[in-house]
Amino acid sequence: MHRAVARSLWFGSALTLGLTGCSQPASPVTTDPYAGGRSFPWAYTAPPTQLLPLRLTAGENNLYYEPILAARNSWGPIEIDRSNGEQQAGDGNAITLDGTTYSRGFGTHAGSELRFSLKGTDATCTRFVSQIGIDDEVGTRGSVVFQVYLDGQNAYDSGVMTGASATKTIDLDLTGKQELRLVVTDAGNGISFDHADWAKPLISCQATTPTLTLNQSALSVYHLHTASLKAAFAHYPPGLVDLRLEADPGEPPPGGTLLPYPVVLQTTALTLSGAASETRDVVIAAPEKFGFNNYSSAFHLVVSRNGQTLSSVPVQLTELPIKFTASVEPGSVSGRQGEVKTLVLTVTADPPLDRAYPLSIGFQDNFTQSYPLESVGPVSGNGARMQAALTFRFGGNNPVGGYQLRAGVAVGTITTGYRDLLYAGAPSFGLDFTVRP
């Protein structure tokens, strides 16, 4: 079927359905556009399955081909490529303004409205041009005001136009706009003969390339935590996009093929609105085991749709160890051989962990012949500050005198296991003790 014929049939059917849906009684055809104080209101709203953005492409686009999201009229249905005519669909004449006939346009009757989305595909709307006036079919009669709204704001007002007014040209900048509304009012004196035409309505667009911009080129993430990048998406068609991290060539995981990269992308998909530019949070996490050194590597954040890459930007990602500190109270003790003291071990974490983890003694570094730190009790507190009771025994082989012990603390399995106590942020503490005779 020819595109123009298909379009006319589709919208004519939609208008008829819309009129029926509004429960408007069938109206007798009259030969006088609006007479005797009557009106024949009509309204149409596209079903949810037809709420599509404009199929805009680079160059000049005629609104004739674009889906109408909503419309209303005061003298039967709005006509496409014809004047309003009477109350039935398809009963208008050729659109004619000041003797000039137009093959494309909308024939309306005040008050009327047409609403379009400007969220096109691979194109940015930059300009709207249309010829406007009262159709010649009503002679010099009628009085209307043409208005254009962009994103809900009045961008154009024609002032009062009558059937005797010369045709006017609308020429508006649409850059960055998302919605177009074409409105005709009755100029405040009723709707008699108010047959208003939007002739040759054109949308000009420029081809656009989706771009992705990050608020920073490098991001540090603490182990077992997350951090966010602000990602600005510009000129993206509306809909779902996929995100992934790609390591730059020559940047293998720190454990080679045996261990994964320690940083992972949590935000793997986003639904974009189609706005000219929109900013979203992209979350990076560091859930894997941490090694001896801080990890830093070059990546690309890649945005794709249906497997096709749309944008890719570089970002340096660094994993940092949690900053642990450890201390005991009291910090010094004295006693005889064989005595047992109970100390309080405190470990802090910055940034905090999600909860308190079990604490244990990982190593004891001293020059004595015994190992006096014997056990750690149940932990209390939270992820920022953990405490546990610590048993200290004066070893039987320690001669009388003063000593200093240094011990490392393991925090759950965070600082043990992979590369064990070489965790870059593993905490340790010192204890002074004196053996009395």
- Principal-axes geometry comes out as rod-shaped
How do the strands of the widest beta sheet line up side by side? 1-3-8-13-10-11
Strand fraction: over 45%
Low-confidence runs (pLDDT<50, min 5 residues)? 1-32, 417-421
CATH superfamily of the largest domain: NPCBM/NEW2 domain
- Helical residue percent? under 10%
Task: Please work out how many helical segments DSSP would assign.
Answer: 1
CATH architecture label of the largest domain:
Sandwich
Number of strands: 32
Mean pLDDT: 82
Reading off the top of the CATH hierarchy, the class of the largest domain is best stated as Mainly Beta
Computed over alpha carbons, the radius of gyration is: 38 Å
**Largest sheet composition:** 6 strands, antiparallel
CATH fold naming of the largest domain: Jelly Rolls
Counting helices, strands and paired strands, the structural category is: mainly beta
Number of domains: 3
| Beginning-to-end CA distance, first to last residue | 109 Å
